[in-house]
């Protein structure tokens, strides 16, 4: 009996302990005063990364060429529009990188900005701003090093858009891709620009952290997104074939077919002249003389009307004499 009582006592004590533990508060006590976490700070570097590769040339590096430039005003950023200010946005990114200013850099980035390999598939993409790195200092240091490898006169291009498709980029429906390329085409810095909340921002920046010595192929990563946006009716970028008459159905306008001309009537054959008869020769028509403007005759001067002479007064008629009476 003692063993059964001991078991019951232990079981009841365990249940009591669980009941008391369940009544405890799940969360720690609420502090009386909330304290904001300290804001991260960054001391800009006064020097640029050493130039390497093509940046060692006489033209200097790409990052060095923007070190003395001043950034634009913040109010001006709201007036930009893609694809027209694409190069202006990238210039501002390079100025912020040369100044080692992470706050200015974040002003030019989208909310979900990423960085990775220079590929439109955004391979190895990772966010620029993270919880452990709220200023994006890791990206900023790598971007400064990569831009120091390029020459100040490196080739810059943006993906051309078809005529009339600029509105898709300006409205935010389609991105604009731009890139810097080295002379051997092995080193690339790619930028994906978008319109977010009515402002032009950078959404993705791709570059190699170390310069590559050979081209990299990643065939198993899927197809990259199209350079031109999808439309309901597929657009052929190839030149159309010429028509049978040699005209272009797109560029040249179709000319109307000429109306058939009536066949000329056969002329009556003239009888051949005999040998003895004289051959009639048509008299040559005199050549028309050039019309020479004849001097117009001067209008004759009309004589001025003379003053009418006064009419003579009518003479009084003589009185009629009475006839003599006949003698009886």
UniProtKB/TrEMBL annotation:
<feature type="compositionally biased region" description="Basic and acidic residues">
    <location>
        <begin position="251"/>
        <end position="264"/>
    </location>
</feature>
<protein>
    <submittedName>
        <fullName>Uncharacterized protein</fullName>
    </submittedName>
</protein>
<keyword id="KW-0732">Signal</keyword>
<feature type="compositionally biased region" description="Basic and acidic residues">
    <location>
        <begin position="286"/>
        <end position="328"/>
    </location>
</feature>
<feature type="signal peptide">
    <location>
        <begin position="1"/>
        <end position="21"/>
    </location>
</feature>
<feature type="compositionally biased region" description="Acidic residues">
    <location>
        <begin position="265"/>
        <end position="279"/>
    </location>
</feature>
<feature type="region of interest" description="Disordered">
    <location>
        <begin position="32"/>
        <end position="57"/>
    </location>
</feature>
<feature type="region of interest" description="Disordered">
    <location>
        <begin position="239"/>
        <end position="328"/>
    </location>
</feature>
